[in-house]
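Duplicate of earlier report; 2Fe-2S ferredoxin-type domain-containing protein input re-posted below.
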Amino acid sequence: MPKITVVGQGEVEFDGQFSMLEALDEAGFDMPYSCRGGNCGACEVRLLSGNVEHIQDTAYETRGKDILTCSVIPLTDVEIELI
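Output:
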């Protein structure tokens, strides 16, 4: 199971939840979000390492290494940072 590390907050294993956001939310992380559908950008974080798979199309466009946690799942261990 891939591990999600949030800089300064800790880590959790991804256990097949719908999205990275869902896994973090279930584990009690204080992650920003609003729509959970890729429309608002509130759950945007910086992907520092690892690989993710996009599971849904988003209306909000990220730049560079930024991802929407509501719209991806980790394929490998990942490290993310709140921005």
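Residues 30 and 63 are 23 Å apart (CA to CA).

Merging into the original ticket.
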